[in-house]
């Protein structure tokens, strides 16, 4: 057995009457355990929130979205669309026209985003997360229907059961060179029948109204122009694979974004928050680990005679430093192991049984979402090792400077 490890283990497992040093060592282990446990729990909560955001966005957004790199819209024709449909991995292709419009329902008005979609829109597993109530169709050519965000519906006081009150949509016409005194010629208008509400995420709930593509194309006078194409991936294909196929097929004039890229800013914000929380808790863990520094410093003072005896027997300064470094490592490793186990157990219980509720009746999930990632455990372990080395180095160096002639 390694001599430095053997001596450090003897100090760590000492059965002597407890004194201030052993109490300080115990406090150090508890501090490391609590800090490590907090890191595991908080990192898992951020992972869960990231998954929740992805899941909610995936309920509204397409797996892949095609947009023009320059300009708001682009021209399409049946031959070009068929070419995209025939790209390997493309299962469903939905045409989209999206723009802002003024909504009026029974005198209540709101500017919102009207999203005209092909009839196969709901074939892309839309609204699989969140809430949806009402009809799952968009009506027909004679009575086009509207699926509204819950926030839009509540603001306009829409009653789905009242079929006699239509949802009026107003859209400004392109400016003409000749002025007109008739205000009715300044905008286009048409009516929709509210058929359903959806609730996915507030950003969508308060802004969007889903309508048939034909209705939106005629109202907005888009003709063959589309603002985007939304694509569902065939089974057996990966999103990255189909994304690369589409980029190669469409060329540099079009962007092809997956769900994460469609909301890159928000997901980047969540990752940054996770990073800053990790650094903050690591700093707190470092402060808690200062007890290791004090306990090893006191141990070095108490064991001066033992150190002097070891040196008299031929021990080098390197061996003395290794003894105290390993003593600090044992304190940190035991504390970190306890923290990792407790953190894992708490996160597993939350994931399995939802012990801690969000406390929001209208929330999409009842309990705080959590998810454990092995890389988080790896980074936490690395942080504990670094903190231990920093906290143990100075006491180990002091212990190695003990003079044999002064202590014996």
Structural account:
Its main location: membrane. It is found in: Cell membrane. The chain has 2 domains: 3-57 and 266-407, no CATH class; 62-262, no CATH class. Strands 3-4-9-6-8-7 form a 6-stranded mixed barrel. It has helices at 3-12, 20-60, 78-85, 150-156, 202-205, 213-220, 239-250, 259-262, 264-288, 290-302, 304-312, 317-353, 374-400, 404-407; strands at 64-68, 74-75, 90-105, 108-117, 131-134, 145-149, 167-172, 187-199, 208-212, 225-226, 228-233, 254-258. The protein is built from 14 helices and 12 strands. The two termini are 28 Å apart. The relative contact order is 0.19. Helix 12 packs antiparallel against helix 13. The chain has 408 residues and is α+β, with helices and mostly antiparallel strands. Helices cover 51% and strands 19% of the residues.
From the structure above, extract its key features:
2 domains, 14 helices, transmembrane, transmembrane helix, alpha+beta, 12 strands, six-stranded mixed beta barrel, 408 residues, single chain
End-to-end CA span: 28 Å
The coarse silhouette is elongated
Domain module tally: 2
C-alpha-based Rg, rounded: 32 Å
Structural class: alpha+beta
Helix fraction by DSSP (H/I, runs of at least 4): 40-55%
Mean pLDDT: 87
Low-confidence stretches: none
Kindly estimate the percentage of residues that lie in beta strands according to DSSP.
15-25%
> How are the strands of the biggest sheet laid out side by side?
3-4-9-6-8-7
Q: What are the secondary-structure elements, in order, as H or E?
A: HHEEHEEEEHEEHEHEEHEHHHHHHH
How would you sum up the major sheet? 6 strands, mixed, barrel
